[in-house]
């Protein structure tokens, strides 16, 4: 597990390091520049980085603002010169230098003492005019040190023009900390952003590196250790973290003296006319993820198809609405975890099922797809959820994709895309649930503020039934009695890995069953 920070958090941890641990800011800037130049010189020593650029034959341009991102830039330029590269600084500002940060002034003083060159925005202007005249860029590498975590508003005027011009030049593009123009907290482009091939960031990665559209501007993100540790969190750690392969070691272990009852019983309430597949994928994934028993509660109409495809699952079917309540109560009291919603439909019977489950479940319950849609359309059910989570402490996991999230919140999907983190937190807080907002990088939030950004997965997962597989994985881990928030985050992470694995093994497109089948390959990798 690693932390990912917002702009506000990083600024707080920088400040804690200087104020509480007495590390002068200039020392941090020097450590940042030193660590970055070490990493960068490894990259530059590789002969063919991009466009067959011959790094040693052309100088490096470091474009700096006048805050501490610029201070890093000036220090980087000096250290590159000391290493034998030819690096020049170009300062971009529409303010007097007196308005710069103290570390910037100190770094600029040191840089100038060494006799190294400083330019202003007219240099970018002339490079752009060369570009328009077909003259190749005079610099092999362009390093962006304009704005880092201190970016506080849209980029306009001189800064806008500079970034626009730099973006068209042919050179290897490097950003210090985060591409200028990208919000470190939301990943949004604040009007325009520098497009980097590599981003060297300090101590912790930032949310903006992994949220869209920021991701597309960062290139490869390299984290440089500059001595700011988790001690600088004091008593307020970052809200977000991400999981890594070694976290899979925390999956439930299987031991010799056990039976199927030892690994949890999952009840999948899913599937309706023409939607048997949703129930099958969820149940299949639950089994593959290790639970001992799966029951599928579904419409009788699905009996033959489900039994022929997944005979391991026990079927509980209904033909008439009147029998549903008794059947559900009996099976809910049997279950250790529940999946509610995939392929359920949104008709009156399904609505009744959703209400009955919310009222009667007493184990962690994953609410997905049509069950979420039913909740979205019915304010009385929304209130019911709040009542049972807040008063009765029931554990619900909502797994909306962005369309379902938009329906639930009654907020336009484009607005949600701009700040998926805040909207996920809103659902988690308002309903007191764990909210899994499914996207290329899925966000998992709970109401206690322990949140995850998932970095596994690939476009192979963009296939029908992929979300059903996820519900089965999460419910299976819940049934095996893992902590609900961690089980959810780990389930999302493992689902992503399974998607990557299924995509690797085929040249054709991935299908939901391939993702479920890939779970065993992931488990084999960690267990043997
Ligand atoms: N602090 C530390 O201990 C360490 C910090 N480190 C480094 O410092 C970076 C953070 O530095 P920072 O906080 O000085 O902010 P930074 O990103 O340089 O930007 C602030 C400047 O930009 C300006 N500005 C903002 N938005 C603007 C806009 N749209 N358009 C125009 N201007 C705009 C703003 O001016 P103002 O808002 O006052 O007008 C101010 O001048 C961090 O990312 C890392 O690289 C590391 O060395 C490790 C130790
Ligand atoms: N491009 C992508 N990269 C990574 N994960 C993806 C991508 N596209 C989809 N996914 C994942 O695939 C799953 C799709 O879920 P969902 O939309 O509910 O599918 P369905 O309803 O068809 O089962 C989610 O877990 C989502 O995060
Ligand atoms: K930058």
UniProtKB/TrEMBL annotation:
Binds 1 potassium ion per subunit. K(+) binds at residues 69, 144, 180. Keywords: ATP-binding, Isomerase, Lyase, Metal-binding, Multifunctional enzyme, NAD, NADP, Nucleotide-binding, Potassium. Residues 243-526 form the YjeF C-terminal domain. It catalyses: (6R)-NADHX = (6S)-NADHX; (6R)-NADPHX = (6S)-NADPHX; (6S)-NADPHX + ADP = AMP + phosphate + NADPH + H(+); (6S)-NADHX + ADP = AMP + phosphate + NADH + H(+). Its EC number is 4.2.1.136, 5.1.99.6. Residues 10-234 form the YjeF N-terminal domain. AMP binds at residues 438-442, 467. Its cofactor is K(+); Mg(2+). (6S)-NADPHX binds at residues 68-72, 148-154, 159, 177, 278, 343, 401, 468. One of its GO terms (biological process) is metabolite repair. GO terms for molecular function: ADP-dependent NAD(P)H-hydrate dehydratase activity; ATP binding; metal ion binding; NAD(P)HX epimerase activity. It comes from the Bacteria. InterPro entries: Carbohydrate_kinase_pred_CS, CARKD, Nnr, Ribokinase-like, YjeF_N_dom, YjeF_N_dom_sf. Belongs to the NnrE/AIBP family. PANTHER family: ATP-DEPENDENT (S)-NAD(P)H-HYDRATE DEHYDRATASE, ATP-DEPENDENT (S)-NAD(P)H-HYDRATE DEHYDRATASE FAMILY MEMBER. Bifunctional enzyme that catalyzes the epimerization of the S- and R-forms of NAD(P)HX and the dehydration of the S-form of NAD(P)HX at the expense of ADP, which is converted to AMP. This allows the repair of both epimers of NAD(P)HX, a damaged form of NAD(P)H that is a result of enzymatic or heat-dependent hydration. HAMAP family: NADHX_dehydratase, NADHX_epimerase. Homotetramer. This is Bifunctional NAD(P)H-hydrate repair enzyme. It comes from Lachnobacterium bovis DSM 14045.
């Amino acid at each position: 597990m690693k932390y990912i920070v917002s702009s506000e958090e990083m600024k707080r941890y920088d400040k804690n390091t200087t104020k509480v641990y007495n590390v002068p800011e200039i020392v941090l800037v020097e450590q940042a520049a030193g660590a970055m130049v070490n990493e960068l010189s490894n990259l530059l020593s590789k002969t063919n980085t991009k466009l067959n650029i011959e790094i040693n034959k052309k100088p490096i341009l470091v474009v700096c603002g006048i805050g501490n991102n610029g201070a890093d830039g000036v220090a980087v330029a000096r250290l590159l010169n000391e290493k034998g590269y030819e690096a020049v600084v170009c300062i971009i500002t529409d303010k007097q230098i007196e308005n710069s940060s103290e570390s910037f002034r100190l770094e600029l003083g040191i840089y100038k003492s060494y006799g190294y060159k400083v330019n202003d925005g007219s240099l970018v202007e002339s490079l752009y005019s060369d570009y328009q005249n077909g003259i190749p860029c005079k610099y092999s590498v362009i390093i962006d040190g304009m704005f880092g975590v201190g970016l506080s508003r849209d980029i306009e005027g001189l800064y806008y023009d500079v970034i626009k011009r730099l973006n068209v030049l042919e050179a290897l593009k490097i950003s210090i900390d985060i591409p200028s123009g990208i919000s470190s907290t939301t990943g949004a482009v604040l009007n325009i952003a520098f497009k980097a091939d590599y981003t060297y960031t300090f101590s912790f990665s930032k949310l903006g590196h992994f949220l869209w559209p920021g991701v597309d501007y960062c290139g490869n993100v390299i984290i440089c250790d500059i001595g700011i540790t988790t001690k600088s969190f004091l008593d307020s750690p970052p809200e977000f973290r991400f999981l890594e392969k070694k976290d899979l070691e925390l999956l439930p272990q299987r031991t010799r003296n056990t039976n199927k009852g030892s690994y949890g019983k999952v009840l999948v309430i899913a599937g309706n006319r023409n939607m048997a597949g949703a129930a099958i994928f969820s149940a299949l994934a639950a089994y593959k993820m290790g639970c001992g028993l799966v029951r599928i509660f579904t419409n009788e109409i699905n009996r033959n198809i489900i039994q022929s495809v997944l005979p391991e699952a026990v079927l509980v079917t209904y033909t008439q609405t009147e029998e549903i309540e008794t059947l559900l109560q009996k099976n809910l009291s049997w279950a250790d975890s529940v999946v509610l919603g995939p392929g359920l439909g949104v008709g009156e019977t399904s609505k009744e099922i959703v209400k009955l489950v919310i009222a009667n479940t007493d184990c962690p319950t994953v609410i997905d797809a049509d069950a979420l849609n039913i909740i979205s359309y019915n304010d009385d059910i929304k209130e019911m959820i709040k009542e049972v989570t807040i008063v009765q402490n029931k554990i619900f996991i909502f797994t909306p994709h962005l369309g379902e999230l938009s329906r639930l919140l009654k907020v336009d999907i484009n607005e949600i895309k701009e700040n998926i983190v805040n909207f996920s937190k809103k659902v988690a807080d308002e309903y007191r649930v764990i909210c899994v907002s499914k996207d290329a990088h899925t966000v998992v939030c709970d109401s206690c503020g322990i949140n995850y950004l998932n970095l596994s997965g690939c476009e192979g997962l963009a296939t029908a039934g992929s979300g059903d597989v996820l519900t089965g994985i999460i419910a299976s881990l819940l049934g095996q009695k893992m902590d609900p928030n961690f089980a959810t985050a780990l389930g999302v992470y493992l689902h992503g890995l399974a998607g990557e694995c299924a995509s690797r093994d085929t040249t054709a497109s991935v299908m939901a069953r391939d993702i479920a089948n890939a779970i065993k390959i992931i488990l084999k990798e960690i267990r043997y």
